[in-house]
Specification:
Radius of gyration: 21 Å
Helix content: over 70%
Number of domains: 1
CATH topology: Amino acid/polyamine transporter I
Order of helices and strands: HHHHHHHHHHHHHHHHH
CATH class: Mainly Alpha
Strand content: under 5%
Low-confidence stretches: none
Mean pLDDT: 82
Oligomer: single chain
């Protein structure tokens, strides 16, 4: 096992910026439209339920991250609390989850660019080209190192949060006609329309577990990680609810842009096509920032897996300035392969988002199990058990697609067992 350690360079402000840009991306800029199309005036309640579900899970993640500050994130939690075999199973599930979710982020960015350009070229080719270029841009920023990338994320987060706050607020103030479905009363909610969307919308609440893969690079992880999670969650929730409410009130449910660029659809309804194009540019920048942070986290997972012996040791090599460049290369090549599969219609973006969302929810549940085991007080154990019950009940809505994480976990566990037998 290679005993490499990453450089501790992240401050609280950089970590909050990274947290926001990892979480706010395709989830915010694509899912409000998709959920609205499926659930209509009741879709806001899907977002509320997911927000309530994630709060106790983030409390648990913060506690585990402060106690076990490693680049392995939730896999590192599993190794410290349970065993290397359980950790290997978690790593494989994470690799299978990142491998679907992060390419979906790049695809969302390409959809927004497609709303801005009008060329006589097949839509799928443009989408693939733009997505691959975004992967390359994120790779380049991360290749420069954590300190530079952290500053880029911090200043992008400040700019993008201000812009995202202004768009729904100005839309609600200046709109001349409300053409949306509005918001259903709680008594009129159709539960059958909400539960099937929980797995998909929960993707918008993922990212904080990806932030856990950067804990090893914090200057003071025990103090800074919980603060970073709490501050970024508070900011993200405000953004989500403002945008979802404004879309439901203002945008017609049959708007052609809802399924690919709902933020542009909102701006066009209020301010015209020019504003829609400007928002399209802003959305692309947001998603690119999201992609930079996500690839940062994913490359640390690959690095940690190689350092622990699950992947080839050569991937765990660090550059002179302590950047895991080999893992960055492997990570981005894998994501590019998934984008090519999407081009050939083997993997569709809705499938990528849905499978990723449910997998992250299960990963939160695994973190809850670790939290219960290390709990020192009765109150902590009760809190953990209640959180676990919420996870199990919600998992009951996911259906046959639960086979995907089960296969990943089983493969990782038995692969680790095989390595130990050799």
């Amino acid at each position: 096992m290679i005993n490499n350690k990453l450089e501790k360079s992240l401050s609280i402000s950089q970590a909050v910026g990274l947290g926001i840009t990892i979480v706010v991306g395709s989830g915010l800029l694509l899912l409000p439209g998709l959920a609205y199309q499926d659930a209509g005036a009741s879709s806001i309640y899907v977002w509320v339920i997911c927000a309530l579900l994630v709060i106790p899970l983030l409390v648990i993640f913060s506690a585990l991250g402060a106690k076990y500050p490693t680049a392995g994130g939730v896999a590192g939690f599993m190794q410290n609390v349970f065993s290397r075999h359980i950790s290997s199973a978690t790593e494989v599930m994470l690799l299978g989850t990142f491998g679907l979710g992060i390419p979906a982020i790049a695809l969302t960015g390409s959809y927004y660019v497609n709303t801005l350009i009008f060329v006589d070229v097949q839509f799928e080719i443009i989408t693939l080209t733009i997505s691959l270029l975004m992967i390359f841009a994120a790779f380049t920023v991360n290749y420069l190192g954590a300190a530079i990338s952290g500053n880029i994320q911090k200043y992008l987060a400040i700019t993008l949060v201000l812009a995202l706050l202004l768009i729904p607020i100005l839309s609600l103030v200046f709109v001349s006609e409300y053409k949306g479905e509005g918001i259903n009363r709680i008594s009129n909610i159709e539960i059958s329309n909400i539960f099937p969307l929980l797995g998909m919308v929960f993707f918008a609440y993922t990212g904080w577990e990806m932030l856990s893969f950067t804990i090893e690079e914090y200057k003071n992880p025990k103090r800074d990680y919980p603060i970073s999670v709490a501050l970024s969650f508070f900011i993200v929730i405000i953004l989500y609810f403002l945008l979802v409410i404004s879309i439901q009130l203002i945008v017609p449910i049959d708007d052609v842009l809802l399924g690919t660029a709902p933020l542009s659809a909102l701006a066009q309804q209020v301010f015209g096509s020019m504003a829609g194009n400007l928002v399209g540019v802003l959305s692309f920048i947001i998603i690119l920032a999201n992609l930079i942070g996500a690839i940062w986290a994913a490359s640390r997972l690959v690095f940690s897996s190689a350092r622990e012996g699950l992947l080839p040791a050569s991937i765990a090599k660090l550059s002179v300035n302590k950047v895991p460049r080999a893992s960055l290369v492997v990570t981005c090549l894998f994501f590019s392969t998934v984008l090519i599969l999407n081009y050939f219609n083997i993997l569709k973006v809705n499938d990528l988002l849905r499978l990723t969302g449910q997998n992250f929810f299960i990963l939160y549940g695994m973190a809850v199990l670790a939290y219960i085991k290390i709990s020192e007080t009765k109150k902590q154990k009760i809190f953990g058990i209640i959180s676990l019950m919420i996870v199990v009940i919600t998992m009951g809505t996911f259906g046959v697609e639960l086979l995907y994480p089960i296969v990943l976990l089983s493969f990782g566990y038995f692969m680790s067992k095989y390595k130990s037998w050799k």
